[in-house]
Amino acid sequence: MLYGWATGAFFPLFTTFAFGEVMAIIYITVFLRWTTKRTYALKATGVSFIVVALTALYTILGMTGATGQSRIQVGLITGYMMAMGCVLLYIAPFETIVRVLKTRSGASIPIGICLAGATSNSLWIVDGFLVGDTFIFILSIVCAAFALFQVVLYLVFRPTRQSAGVAHAEIRPIHTIQAKYVLPVTKVFSPKSDGTVESSPLSPGSAGMRSPSPVFVAINSP
Fold first, then answer.
1. d(CA 63, CA 66)
2. pTM for the complete prediction?
3. Is the dihedral of CA 17, 23, 27, 30 positive or negative?
4. Which site among 25, 70, 74, 214 is 20 to 30 Å from 85 CA-CA?
5. What is the fold of 72-160?
6. Alpha-carbon span 28 to 42, nearest angstrom
7. Where are the domains of the chain?
8. Using CA atoms, how far apart are residues 91 and 84, in angstroms rounded to an integer?
9. Distance between CA atoms of residues 67 and 85, nearest Å
């Protein structure tokens, strides 16, 4: 946004990033309200605010003539600061790469942000080329490459593929389970009227399997 002001590129550069700043303030406010790691979030937000405030202070002083520099010089220095800030923005998600390679899952990669960044920077590449802005053109190429690399990494280690592989590995053929676990067969002895005893097997889950069967002894009537 400051670079757009310093170079006079009010549309689309200044307007687009001004809208982004408003949305970022809303997002940070909501995040600080509901996050469980408020101490860490406040420290990170405070450091970022100091850096942005110092950058904005320099640009304002330079544009008002307080630094004795021309608008071209102020725009050049602001462009370098913008480049550093944008590259750091797209390098930040790379802290999850170690986790991705260790767990073989891309669940920790912010795929939505990476896709949005790749698409946005692709459009800025076209804009920088058409207007002849070297800062916008080269910086957008670098940022788009970072974003696309993370998208590719997510596709290689996409979570759905890994989950399916784990589930498939845990499935065993039913015949191996049946061969390993053989249920015992219990016989029930029932007396008959002619004095003999008849035996019959019980199926698993029947009442006889759940409780021990009594022993029947044939006794002749006097």
1. 8
2. 0.63
3. positive
4. 70
5. Monooxygenase (1.20.1280)
6. 10
7. 1-68, 72-160
8. 10
9. 22
Question: What single-letter DSSP state applies at residue 14?
Answer: I
Question: Helix, strand, or coil here: 198?
Answer: strand
Residues contacting residue 198 through CB under 8 Å, at least 6 positions apart: 189, 190, 191, 192
CB atoms within 10 A of CB 92: 12
In terms of Cβ atoms closer than 10 Å to its own Cβ (0-12, 13-18, 19+), residue 109 is buried
Q: What is the mean pLDDT of residues 94-98?
A: 76
C-alpha–C-alpha distance, residues 35 and 46, integer Å: 16
Amino acid at 92: A
Q: Give the contacts of 162 (CB within 8 A, at least 6 positions apart).
A: 104, 105
- Residue where the block lists tokens 């790469």: 97
Q: What is the pLDDT of residue 137?
A: 92
Is the backbone of residue 8 left (phi > 0), alpha (psi -120 to 50) or beta? left
List, in sequence order, the alpha helices (H) in the chain.
Answer: 2-7, 15-34, 38-63, 71-91, 97-103, 111-131, 134-156, 159-170, 174-180, 207-210
Q: Is residue 186 predicted with pLDDT exceeding 60?
A: no
What's the pLDDT score for residue 99? 84
Place of tokens 């550093």: 84
Looking at residue 200, its pLDDT comes to 56
CA distance to 12, 120, 205, 214, per residue, from 128 (Å): 11, 12, 75, 92
